Amino acid sequence: MTAPDFSKDCKDDLSLAAYQYNLPPDRIAQNPVVPRDRARLLVVDACDHHKHSYFYELPNWLKPGDLLIFNNTQVIPARLYGRKPEGAAVEILLLEAQAPLQWLALVKPGKRLKPGAVILFGEDLQLPLLIAKVVATDAATGGRLLQFEMPTGLSFEAALQSLGQVPLPPYITDSQATPEQYQTIYAAAPGAVAAPTAGLHFTDEVFQNLKHRGIDTAFLTLHVGLGTFRPVEASDITTHAMHAEWIDISPTVVEQIQQTRADGGRVIAVGTTVTRALEGAAQNGVLAAFQGKTNVFIYPGYQWRVVDGLITNFHLPGSSLLMLVSALVGRSRLMQLYAEAIAQAYRFYSFGDAMLILPEAKREDLG
């Protein structure tokens, strides 16, 4: 096939135009591979070297003493369909909790949902399971701040499970995937509106083989929200403002990282969300236990503090995730790897294949 146009004439790593590429529509994975660990794996192991593998072979590419860090967030059924009291249909996508029973959400139709508007959820609008009132608009996201109440006494979590749907990304348009297939097998902390997709490839068998190889594991939480999938629109990417996302890194995880370093091991982040959590918690130069929000934006020139290597999927053109990976291996090289992946019929995006960037491939001159 003809090699795609990867904007080779654009040399500026800080220009949005440098992160565009053409992806044939049939490369966008609509369904996950079964079993999960049979996805393909592009292994980037040294400067100008890469190999083609499969995800179940991941333990063979790592070294005893390495530490894999996972995001244990759980996707909630964040998409809800309701009606205004007069009957007009409303769709909302929960983004993040702001206070007890108060959520920031994207809404459709937004222009008709001004502060004071009421949304009813459930089959019987005379006795709804859930009621939301618009209390404010949010200029940063274009969303609404919603205050919920449960007139029937049902808990909010139970109401979501009854009424909500797990929201798949908009580029997945023809999928037969079950909600469980859009969750990692280790998801434990409800709160995300999108999956940490690099973790979708892991199976019990892979975890067992990692343990047998002497590769350690640790878990943190970043509730995936708007910061992950909000598009970069500024032509100068340095002016892009990331939306903050909630993270929780325990003292135990910090101790595991410190011990790994002391023993000569390597810290491998499973996904860009883990990368942002670790680097976001180390912005003062030292990683410490942290619970709060981070809006760290990683792009070429970033000075790495914690992460040595990365497991990640293939990301959308012009996305902050593509820029993060470019900060690790270099933009030009990453574009060449993407061209190779397209030519080799790799599957892209959330249900797609994966890439392993080993520390030997890290661009130290970029950070």
Automatic annotation (TrEMBL):
One of the record's GO molecular function terms: S-adenosylmethionine:tRNA ribosyltransferase-isomerase activity
NCBIfam families this protein is in? PRK00147.1, queA
The UniProt entry's sequence similarity note says: Belongs to the QueA family.
Q: Which organism is it from?
A: Almyronema epifaneia S1
Tell me which InterPro entries the record gives: QueA, QueA_dom1, QueA_dom2, QueA_sf
Enzyme class label: transferase
Its domain of life? Bacteria
* Pathway connected to this protein: tRNA modification; tRNA-queuosine biosynthesis
Q: How does it assemble?
A: Monomer.
Could you tell me what this protein is called?
S-adenosylmethionine:tRNA ribosyltransferase-isomerase
Q: What does this protein do?
A: Transfers and isomerizes the ribose moiety from AdoMet to the 7-aminomethyl group of 7-deazaguanine (preQ1-tRNA) to give epoxyqueuosine (oQ-tRNA).
The UniProt keyword set, sorted, is: Cytoplasm, Glycosyltransferase, Queuosine biosynthesis, S-adenosyl-L-methionine, Transferase
Q: Where in the cell is it found?
A: Cytoplasm
Catalysed reactions listed for this entry: 7-aminomethyl-7-carbaguanosine(34) in tRNA + S-adenosyl-L-methionine = epoxyqueuosine(34) in tRNA + adenine + L-methionine + 2 H(+)
- Gene name of this polypeptide: queA
Biological classification of the source = Bacteria, Bacillati, Cyanobacteriota, Cyanophyceae, Nodosilineales
EC numbers, comma separated: 2.4.99.17
Tagged with keyword S-adenosyl-L-methionine? yes
PANTHER family per record? S-ADENOSYLMETHIONINE:TRNA RIBOSYLTRANSFERASE-ISOMERASE
